[in-house]
Specification:
Layout lengths: L2 E5 L2 E3 L5 E8 L6 E8 L6 E7 L5 E3 L7 E6 L4 E6 L8 E9 L12 E2 L3 E5 L2
Parallel strand pairs: 2-11
Antiparallel strand pairs: 1-3, 3-8, 4-5, 4-9, 5-6, 7-8, 9-10, 9-11
């Protein structure tokens, strides 16, 4: 069974950092595009970052450029989202998603496998 499992969320003060992980289970992330999304209460799901394993293509939403960095561990089939200089407006449930043979895309409709999400709260 194909699964994505996120972890690493939590409560952090403004200006702090967190690293989220997205681990694939039941499949390898080669040939897949991976997207990170977030959804705050009462708001639509927003694309944060995307990455294509084969090409190395990566993209970030303007709201997180310069603060968030996506990386991968091929051996562990895991993608990481390093989040620095966190702001209260970054508070949301963060999801990773995957689609095979896809391009880097920040639109949620482009992905067909989703993790369960991990809560990130930025508050003093």
């Amino acid at each position: 069974q194909l699964q994505l499992v996120e972890s690493g969320g939590g409560l952090v003060q403004p200006g702090g950092s967190l690293r989220l992980s997205c681990a694939a289970s039941g499949f390898t992330l080669a040939n897949y595009a991976i997207g990170w999304f977030r959804q705050a209460p009462g708001k639509e799901r927003e694309g944060v970052s995307c990455f294509v394993f084969n090409s190395g293509s990566v993209n970030y939403a303007d709201s997180v450029k310069g603060r968030f960095t996506l990386s991968r561990d091929n051996a562990k089939d895991t993608v990481y989202l390093q989040m620095n200089s966190l702001k209260p407006e970054d508070t949301a449930v963060y999801y990773c998603a995957a689609r095979r043979f896809a391009l880097c895309n920040l639109h949620s409709t482009a992905y067909n496998y989703w993790g369960q999400g991990t809560q990130v709260t930025v508050s003093s």
